[in-house]
Amino acid sequence: MSTNQILEVVENLLKRKLAPLEQFILIQSWQGSGYQDMAQNSGYGRDYFKEVGSLLWKSISEAVGRRVTKKNLQLVLNQYCQDKSNSDSTVIFSQSNANVYTHKQTLFSSVETFVRYPGSPLAFDSPFYINRPPTENLVNAEIHQPGCLVRVKAPRRMGKSSLLNVVIAHAQSFGYKTVYLDFQEVDSTFFVSLDKFLRWFSANVSNKLLLVSKLNDYWDEDIGSKVSCKNYFERYLLEQIDSPLVLVFNELNRIFEYPNIAQDFLSMLRYWHETAQRVDTWQKLRIVMSHSTENYIELKINQFPFNVGFTVELPPFTLEQVQSLAQRYGLEWAASSDEMYRLEPLQAMVGGHPFLIALALYYLRKGKITLDVLLDEDAIYRVSTEIYSDYLRGLLNSLMAEPKLMSAMQQLVTSKTVELDAITAYKLESMGLVQLDACQASISCELYKFYFRQELEKQNLASALWYSFSGRLLNRLEQEQEPDVRLNHTDKLSKFVSLHYFNQYLQTEWQKWQVTVTPLHLVVCEIDYFKMYNDRKGIQAGNESLQNISNIVFNYLQYQAVIIAHYDAKFFAILPRNNSSNVLQLAETIRYEVEALQIDRTQLGWDGFPAPVLTVSLGVAITIPDAQHTSAMLMAAAEDALFLAKRKGHNCVNLYPVLELI
Description:
The strands form 3 sheets. A 5-stranded parallel β-sheet has the order 2-3-4-1-5, with helices on both faces. A 5-stranded mixed β-sheet has the order 10-11-9-12-13, sandwiched between helices. The chain has a 3-stranded antiparallel β-sheet with strand order 6-8-7. The N and C termini lie far apart (61 Å). A hairpin with a 2-residue loop joins strand 10 and strand 11 (570-576). The chain has helices at residues 3-14, 20-30, 35-39, 46-64, 73-87, 95-109, 135-142, 160-173, 194-208, 215-218, 225-240, 259-275, 319-328, 343-349, 354-365, 371-374, 380-387, 389-400, 403-412, 422-430, 446-479, 483-486, 499-516, 530-537, 539-557, 580-596, 631-647; strands spanning 149-154, 177-182, 245-250, 285-292, 310-313, 418-419, 434-437, 440-443, 520-527, 563-567, 570-576, 616-623, 653-655. The longest helix has 34 residues, at 446-479. The chain is built from 27 helices and 13 strands.
């Protein structure tokens, strides 16, 4: 019997629906897995599985009138079904399940009428949703645990949002209240302070529960936002409902862009989860959150909720799951065991990535490409840029924002395995780009190897041409200067060009950039309160700090900027051929990395400073050179952006709006 059939038999026997964990234990036992195998990577201990299994075998024993154990399960139930079949006293499949089966068969047979581009989360009953056992059963089982906290993590487009839809439907089938919050919907204005964000959070939960918002009755600035939010849930929201509340957060990584709010909010959720272990009211609350693993945030480990609760990592599709999805897309040849082998190279080419698999099947179903062309090594780069361009470009932009990752990828595309440091290896694995064996990394699929090899070769060629050209220009400018000026054109500390040369370069190239319609970003970075630091700490300490900060600026801009200058406590860079989101991400990374240096500026008698360590503020301006704008205007715009960043309290990035033309 199939696993679906045995599940139907047992539920008919017991006259009840099995809990998700019971379903999981039954199916795994039927397939011969031991309790230790079930417990591995599940978040539960072996003894817990054994305890639940023993109770299940006892219930089945009482129903069939014969002792049932894990070892004789198949023998007893097969015999039971045979006896019942011979006497025509039972029907293995219930009519309701037959209806569901018929309904899905109808959907599959008419697949041509509703095949859509695979870019959105799937509904829980979508025929295109592929179960990935034991993932669904484990998550569904966990939400029945009082006060649980479940984290679903995976790289982008792995199916996190679709899984959340399945979990919500399961919770609702048991009469649980559910609230779904997608952090992509939150206006940026709600992230200006923790108080504003928690009020938004509380009001939205109230609204989705169809309860009147009573924030002002429970919010008290004297006890703080986190305590007020806790009181609102504990004394009002949870008291108003008589069933468990499943709170689902999608795209939690959006909050990572606001570290101060993220740290407080996530530590608050952790505290709620811990409180549920001793306070009955909080046991009603079950939290399920999903986030993309490409995002990183440095928080204190004892305040970070991601080291508690139950964690699920979504696996790639197996070959059998790829075959099942191909049939649902109406590719009839995929149903044949003789033809199934044709899907194996497709599964290997994209590493079983669900979205990439679905996208390939979509184009195959529409007849826009053939499998032979898709798998042709000579055409894979062209095909990948046609079918997967948006997805792959997003990965490339993420790599370009971190030179260390870009350097590692350059090694990976030309080598079978590369030994990486732990942090680099972890980040690349989190992006889904590599597979790890200790710190030995190999690229995760052929698609990435072909694509990034070609793109990095183009990037290296373009960079070489730009650096060669700018080097010749700087040499020409140097020859035009007086000897005493030439001697100082490069800063002795940072090796950057001087501000004088930077301005001349910008003016000289402005007209050429008008002809090529090249978008330009100008970034100005200033060390906050550096003069006061230098005066108090001394020249030697100031020079050491400046050297460390200049290294960060150079490391993150060297592959993006055509020229970088240093003057006093400021750095200037021109970045052509780029987009605003990438430049702002680079600027934010520089700001974060400088703060992470933890250059202490306490014990200096300064009161009211925004941070106890040295920080930087950055201004960014963008334009396309034309007759209406000059290089001086772009420089002024970047300086204005820096001024506004400092007015906001320093240690931040600001984009000048007026010259943002693209």
